[in-house]
Amino acid sequence: MSHALGQGGMVAAAHPLTVAVALDVLRRGGNAVDAAVAGGLTASVVMPEMCGLGGDLFAIVHAPGHDPLAILGSGVAPRAATLEQMRKHGDPSPTGVKMPFRGPLSVAVPGMVHAFGALLERFGSRRLAELAEPAIGYAEGFPLTPLGAHFIASSADLLRQYPASAAVFLPGGAIPQSGSILRQPDLARTLRTLATQGTQAFYSGDIADRMAAFMAANGGALSAEDLAAHETVLAAPIATTYRGHTAFQTGLPSQGMILLEALNLAEQVDGQALARGDAAAIHLLAEAVKLAYADRLGYAVDPAFGAPRLETLISKAWAAKRFAAIDPERAAATVPAGEMTAGDTTYFCFADGQGMMVSLIQSVSSNFGSGMVAGDTGIVLNNRAGRGFSLEDGHPNIFAPGKKTLHTLNCYSVADALGTPVLVGGTPGGDGQPQWNLQTLVALIDGGLDVQAAIEAPRWTVWPGTDPSTLPNPYELQIEARAGDAVMSGLEARGHILRRFGAWGGGGAAQAIARDPVTGVLAGGSDPRAEGLALGF
């Protein structure tokens, strides 16, 4: 598939209706942030399993005449919840009790809607009422895609546990089929309220009161006071350099530092060697990922609850020290690691003809989040607290009331040597995100590929394995069959335990937009592993 080209604007996203809505905003004179808000609201309707209104949002905005800005839109754990409560109601596991993964105690304060408001207040040129119109229309009814129908079918048992969820997504008790019309009238009413009263209406007033009442009636801890106290954090993105470029990422509590540390480690290797994409290159990148994840697990924490040592983790000196631990001929078996989890998220990127570029990711965490629709609000609630926190004493990410969990959501952007933004990109996929983003950037910068070719390159991820026969090496390297037998053999010779996927089975749904700094021409790429596309004009 070839990349899309344009000069007036470009959108790359994982659902065709999201792309159509955002591109229409750009065509009618809106800027990239306007398009991002309209597209994000639409996605919350047409991709409710991934990015309902009760989720979180992270973004990076490059606006002409301004320094890049990161929008960190995640919320805290309910302030009335306790560690003891989570342990009492947690899920059993072979290694001890874990956070309740689904249900009312898995929910953290949703940050997405507030972040939309912050984006518009800082950079928007259109009113929320105008930008919300398409989402409201689709909430009244839209045709399910094959992937959307699949997500509902695969989550049917979860949705049946909660009457409000089943009423929306399993109408009449039946699993809707592809092409059927999904209607969300309660969500349409909520969106109309936001359109007329502003995003703050999500956090105080009738919507917030009804969400809090629903949670209280169903054993949750999220309160109206938690919602009212929420604020979006606006900050400079964290950054490192990579072969003459500056790579930006969202800071804590997102795991954006993983990509930056991995890039610093990759920079220790000749770029032409990495560009070959052979077993030696994949091995070195996989070992870099292991180290970066180990450092995340060991040090990353909500800055309000500890010292995350972020400056050290993304420094060149730290990378040089850590790179010395990589054996170019053998997979490491002793890198400390905790759990790495897959996720259900969506990523978008937007660019307008005036130089603004937006990299944005939003999610309810796992597929359908907590599994709960908040009563008659129509809002799918996240399970970010349940999926993110640890219950292990001494762990930097241990649960605490009012604390933000370490977040898998992250997105990147890149500027050239003159500081001109030339790329925005990202992907869903939980702990796969930094790994696939690393592969895309290496393919673009070291390999010289265009955005579509970089996204379509054979994909791999490193995960802790569960097969006792593979010990003492607990990792498995999951890789698409398109990488070829020679690559597979070379990786196995270096001690990697392989799990082979089909030709396009590597997961994720990467999107990227590149801007030529001289001509201003935009090039968009979209992952064929999902239903998205890139379109420009």
For this entry, give a set of tags.
537 residues; alpha+beta
Describe this structure in words.
With 537 residues, this protein is α+β, with helices and mostly antiparallel strands. Helices cover 36% and strands 17% of the residues. It has helices at 16-27, 32-46, 48-51, 83-88, 112-123, 128-140, 146-154, 156-160, 163-169, 185-197, 206-217, 224-228, 256-266, 271-275, 279-299, 310-313, 316-323, 384-388, 433-446, 451-456, 485-493, and strands spanning 4-6, 9-13, 56-62, 69-73, 142-143, 181-182, 233-235, 238-242, 245-249, 345-352, 357-363, 412-415, 421-426, 460-464, 475-480, 498-501, 511-515, 522-526, 533-536. Helix 13 runs parallel beside helix 19. The chain is globular and about 60 Å long. 58% of the residues are buried.
Low-confidence parts, pLDDT < 50 over ≥5 residues?
none
Structural class: alpha+beta
Number of E-state strands:
19
* Overall pLDDT metric: 94
Q: What percent of the residues sit in helical stretches (DSSP H or I)?
A: 25-40%
Total of DSSP H or I helical runs spanning 4+ residues: 21
Computed CA radius of gyration, to the nearest angstrom: 22 Å
- Major sheet size, sense and barrel closure: 7 strands, antiparallel
